[in-house]
Amino acid sequence: MSARTPLSAIALVSPVQLMIGGIIFLPAIYVFWLSLNQSSFGQAASFVGFANYAKVLGDAYFWKALLNTVIVVAVVVHVELLLGLGMALFFASGVPFRPLLLAIVLAPYAVSEVSAVVMWRFLFEPDVGMMSRLLMTLGLPPIEWAVNPSHGLAMVSLLSIWLHLPFSFIILYAARLSIPSDLYEAAAIDGASPWTSFRRITLPLLMPALLIAALFRYIFAFRLFSEVWLMTGGGPARSTEVMAVYLYLEAFRYNAFGPAAATGWLLVLASLLLALFYLRRLYREMFARA
Amino acid sequence: MPKLSLPKLLRHLLKLVGVLAIVAWSLVPIGLIAMSSFKADRDIFSTSGTFSFAPTLANYEALWSRWGDFFFGLWNSFLVTVGATVLAVGVSLLAGFAYSRFASRGLQASAFFLIFIRLIPPIVITLPLFPVVNWLGLNDTHFVLIVLYATFFVSLGTVVMRTFIDQIPRELDEAAMMDGASQVQIIMRVILPMAAQGMLAVSVFVIVYAWNEFLFAFIFTTTKAKTAPLVISEMIGAVEGVEWGVLFAASTVQLVPVLAFVILMQKHLVAGLTAGAVKG
What we know:
The structure holds 2 protein chains of 2 kinds. Chain A has helices at residues 7-35, 51-57, 60-92, 98-106, 113-123, 130-137, 149-177, 181-189, 194-221, 226-231, 243-253, 257-274, 276-288, and strands at 37-38, 46-47. By secondary structure, chain A is mostly helical. In chain A, strands 1-2 form a two-stranded antiparallel sheet. In chain A, helix 3 (60-92) runs antiparallel to helix 9 (194-221) and helix 11 runs antiparallel to helix 12. The longest helix of chain A has 33 residues, at 60-92. The radius of gyration of chain A is 23 Å and the shape is globular. The relative contact order of chain A is 0.13. Chain B is mainly alpha-helical. Chain B is 78% helix and 0% strand. Chain B has one domain (58-279): MetI-like (MetI-like fold), CATH 1.10.3720. At the A-B interface, helix 1, helix 4, helix 5, helix 7 and helix 9 of A face helix 1, helix 4, helix 5, helix 6 and helix 7 of B.
């Protein structure tokens, strides 16, 4: 590999690099600067060091939002991977009308967060929604998502799983299809039970795809905003806020740009931390070839 | 009909249950609002009216006469989606070609940067961008959404394009180069026709994202460039007595084109997701 980059290559990658550099990277760095200053919209900034971080870390609502985010992300990602894995194996075992069924599974991918909120609110509308009535018929307690914070978060989780299951499913199904079938035939000849071949063949070979899907879903679930904003608005009494909603409110409702920026930078750090292993492996792989 | 043994019958039955569960999970929420959009108000929540009702277009008429904003929002969504897709696919094609055909330490580092950048949450950059966008007078314009939507998909787009272009034999560009074609001519005449699959895959991502996006539209648009999801969110919020019927009509109109598109483009969506996830 050459040390110098040809001019034409630089020209070809520059639009992409300028876009992400100018619109994502530089602003993200600037957020760090903002987080060290006391400022609000249309007001000159004054340097305050880490005071904004202290303020945010001393705010009970921040910790509430963080806890909510961690719980929702953990539930959403793991349930989603489990369902996705189950569905991928189910599809691989042979299903009738496969192309049609695949299209049906992918359908929620096309649905906007806004419409998904409409759908699930309607299903769980107190007393009259289809699911509320079903729960009532089964003698189960109703989901009071508008008044009970944990029910609200459960609705948000359900909605998120529904919207993003197609992604996890596709990644896992594609990985499952790339496992050569002679492995299973050999295992069957050796008298392996389905459970043994799942544990010894399927699971180890799916592990890379599972990790990739988990990583992407952790990072994206961590950004959760619209579902919460449109379902509960963070209420009642700020009890269902997640990190992105907390940041939004600090910045655009309370005009506290400093604390909002500190929250933002903490979000960036958390995302980087989540992806650290992946980034390190990727870095090694890329530069090992160099 | 051949005789089935009991375990086999049981397995078929289980499979059927599985299929039904999958169909119900995916389609009930969508089907229910699509169906209910044709119901009169009194049928929407009635137990007996779930399937037996007299279909009516009243909700669509109400949507048309009272929420003209929504159709304006659809038009804005359309413009923004087309703009973001053209921009994202175009620049991803160029960069994907460079990463596929050239290699150097600088390029390697910039490829790493592409992936690294995906870790920054969109909400974080709204903080510094909001005042800048205001100051430039770009608030509430299609332009701002087009650029933002495209930017958040160029890194995935580039990775996907690179994966697809890697599969085009280099001999083809070398032959064109011998004939005296420039870099740009090679991309336009050799790569473009053969990378169409990859470009379709990238456009599926961008189209679905741009058509449905809420956060940036919510922060950066108010009236002139307001997109359809934003209008629907206002319809949810405008109401403690939600006008469900009209809301269903709006959700259905917003959903149908993109759903049809995803189903048509299923193959490309799957190919793009796997190329993008495996490689980066």
